Amino acid sequence: xxxxxxxxxxxxxxxxxxxxxxxxxxxxxxxxxxxxSLRLLTQESxxxxxxxxxxxxxxxxxILKLVREKGLNTPIIMMTSFNDVRTAxxxxxxxxxxxxxxxxxxxxxLLTIKKALEKKEDKNLSSKTIIEEDFIxxxxxxxxxxxxxxxxxxxxxxxxxxxxxxxxxxxxAAQTLHNxxxxxxxxxxxxxxxxxxxxxxxxxxxxxxxxxxxxxxxxKKGQFEVANGGTLFLDEVGNLSYExxxxxxxxxxxKVIQPLGSTKQIAVDVRIITATxxxxxxxxxxxxxxxxxxxxxxxxxxxxxxxxxxxxxLKLFIAHFIKLANKELDRNVxxxxxxxxxxxxxxxxxxxxxxxxxxxxxxxxxxAGATADIDALPEEMLFAANEPAKALGSDLKANNESNEKxxxxxxxxxxxxxxxxxxxxxxxxxxxxxxxxxxxxIE
Length: 443
Ligand SMILES: Nc1ncnc2c1ncn2[C@@H]1O[C@H](COP(=O)(O)OP(=O)(O)OP(=O)(O)O)[C@@H](O)[C@H]1O
Description:
The chain is built from 20 helices and 18 strands. By secondary structure, the chain is α/β, with parallel strands linked by helices.
């Protein structure tokens, strides 16, 4: 039995989901808000959390943060409307396993849950093994320059900061740096600092001895020691607390670590690669990140391009992800219709390669035959891809209308297609809304 907690304010959807999952060996509890979910999480332990992004008393990110602060390792899947994807990708930075887009497709949900639970089985925070054939590099000028930089810096022992928006492939870049280094035969350990609680981070990195704190029932090796001779990849390094930053700086400068509660110093030889999609310079100004540590980590900087800035690679990635999804889902999608292709190429992919991979996987899943059609893409992608400024140039009237249309669709979505509610949100009366729906051809 998989103990699953659903946090979702749409009660009928939560009931539907719960009924569906119980057929697949889940024992489901559900609550509609953040507060009761936090209470429940302190009373019971769960194997899986399914959290709606938008909740009546806040966003699902609050639950995510609290779960991680408590040091719980429960896999979390965020459920989000397409319009919230831009912010929902943040949840991955904060340690969510993945997000799925509403309306939830049952097969997609089961697939994501399966992967989340498999990852939990691996238990180790540093477990993602990168399978080379799952990745491609791209042919664009920006991709070539990127891998040229990676090849140049890989054989050195320089600390590298990899910067890039969420989902641009920072982890893959870090692994490539390791594979092309002299350390390639030694461990590559990846730690998601976003998923570590403050208390857990120091012990995860530097280890502890039995009795160092409540709950330390045996000695534990830190990942620095495990990675000795190899590479330690610290993802979302901006999330480390100030105290851990001090310890990290010391470890890097003196090449020794001291497990919590121990008086013994252990010599370590580890190359550090960090990744961030925060602006660390800004965090330094805010006093949240140590400047001396930043300079120690930033001996070389690699900037990963956003997917929208490497449109020459987009077709390659689409074909690659279709191939992977065909294999994984046992489908045989050989092509995409012209309309579908146009949309895939026009959309700006705020969640980058991760979002593209998810959208393609969903598309392949929904395609029984050889040709993927536009209705296998999330409907809202159409609207997002037709953003006013891009499509309409300086035509003010057309821009205003297009903006209005986007706002209306957004409000309808948020109001779960309740037109009275949507009209209220838009501060217009119902009749005006109906007239506008007709005018813009919104169903
Ligand atoms: N070069 C690549 N080839 C194929 N797929 C890729 C590549 N880079 C990234 N991906 C896809 O994008 C997903 C996200 O990549 P990755 O976790 O490396 O991004 P990230 O920048 O570290 O994200 P985050 O900032 O959220 O941690 C991967 O799971 C994979 O599906």
